[in-house]
């Protein structure tokens, strides 16, 4: 059998161009085919059933911006203290926020301070670029508007947070966030004299 291309040298440029086009299409389309795998990969990171990398929903933003309650919390990311027993140690039982010990908290009633916190939070979400496979939260927010509540458990070191809406604490959303809001949160807690847990990078 004769080599077809040996007698048609003019076809070589066309063949090379065709091969390049096929390789290029594969390069472009391959990531699209991988998107179906991402939820499973993300779920495996923390082992829960709802692991979404998304922005805050509209209703959560509304509650954070204009709700009638806005509380900033300082959290201990380590193991909770042992449960106290007996009359003498009863007051040593730590308050918990979604399983994490609360070192202190302050209700933010100043509109300017609240706006600064929310703006920093939204900016951090826009700046987010992926997340780390750890979660050691040192900050939290509880916002409410009437009977609606939004709780944020935030780990700036691991650049993501858990978002709990309503009373359902079993199925939070996960939102990526940069470390840029951290100075604003620290400033609010420092002015209130509330201790904060040392950074994991210290």
Structural class: alpha+beta
Unreliably modeled segments: 27-50, 80-93
What is the strand tally?
Answer: 7
CATH class of the largest domain: Alpha Beta
How many separate domains?
2
The main pleated sheet reads as: 7 strands, antiparallel
Keywords:
Dna Ligase, domain 1, 202 residues, alpha+beta, 2 domains, elongated, 7-stranded antiparallel sheet
Characterise the protein shown here.
It is a single chain. By secondary structure, the protein is α+β, with helices and mostly antiparallel strands. It folds into 2 domains: 9-45; 48-80 and 94-191, 2-Layer Sandwich (Dna Ligase, domain 1). It contains 5 helices and 7 strands. The protein has helices at 12-34, 38-46, 58-66, 111-127, 182-191; strands at 69-76, 96-97, 100-107, 139-145, 148-155, 160-165, 173-176. A 7-stranded antiparallel beta sheet has the order 2-3-1-4-5-6-7, with helices on one face. The chain is elongated, with a radius of gyration of 25 Å.
In short:
The chain has 202 residues and is of the alpha+beta class. The chain has helices at residues 12-34, 38-46, 58-66, 111-127, 182-191; strands spanning 69-76, 96-97, 100-107, 139-145, 148-155, 160-165, 173-176.
Question: What is the secondary structure topology, with strand pairs?
Answer:
Elements: H1 12-34, H2 38-46, H3 58-66, E1 69-76, E2 96-97, E3 100-107, H4 111-127, E4 139-145, E5 148-155, E6 160-165, E7 173-176, H5 182-191
Antiparallel strand pairs: 1-3, 1-4, 2-3, 4-5, 5-6, 6-7
């Amino acid at each position: 059998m004769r080599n077809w291309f040996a007698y048609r040298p003019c076809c070589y440029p066309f063949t090379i161009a065709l091969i390049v086009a096929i390789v290029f299409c594969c390069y472009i389309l391959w990531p699209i085919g991988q998107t179906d795998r991402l939820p499973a990969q993300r779920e495996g990171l923390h082992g829960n059933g709802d692991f979404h990398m998304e922005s805050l929903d509209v209703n959560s933003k509304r509650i954070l911006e204009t709700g009638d309650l806005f509380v900033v919390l300082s959290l201990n990311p380590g193991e909770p203290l042992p449960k106290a027993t007996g009359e003498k140690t009863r007051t040593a039982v730590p308050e918990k926020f979604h399983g994490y010990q609360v070192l202190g908290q302050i209700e933010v009633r100043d509109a300017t301070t609240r706006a600064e916190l929310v703006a920093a939070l939204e900016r951090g979400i826009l700046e987010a670029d992926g997340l780390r496979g750890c979660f050691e939260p040192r900050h939290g927010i509880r916002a409410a508007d009437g009977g609606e509540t939004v709780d944020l458990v935030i780990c700036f070191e691991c650049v993501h947070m858990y978002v709990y809406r309503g009373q359902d604490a079993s199925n939070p959303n996960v939102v990526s966030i940069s470390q840029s809001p951290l100075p604003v949160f620290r400033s609010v807690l420092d002015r209130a004299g509330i201790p904060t847990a040392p950074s994991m990078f210290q």
